[in-house]
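Training component of the fellowship. As part of building independent skills, the fellow (R.M.) carried out the full modelling exercise for a liganded target. The chosen ligand was iron/sulfur cluster. The inputs are recorded below so that the supervisory panel can assess the work.
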Amino acid sequence: MAKKVTINKELCIGCGACTGICPNVFAIGDDGKAGVIGEADDDASIDEAAAGCPVGAIEAK
Ligand code: SF4
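Fellow's submitted model of the complex:
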């Protein structure tokens, strides 16, 4: 089963890195912050996005 992804909007700076790595999972919303729009196909890309977030706002478990 795919990991459950959450974004800490308090931390997110809307850089868009996660949307580039997983465009089917993350999207920048009207608030200028990333949101979760779908489920991950594979955990590896989620882990990559979480590791690539400059402020550590992505939690996956
Ligand atoms: S990589 Fe992190 S800071 Fe950048 S948009 Fe995604 S959640 Fe926000």
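The panel noted the following from the submitted structure. DSSP finds two helices and four strands in the chain. The CA atoms of residues 22 and 45 lie 7 Å apart.
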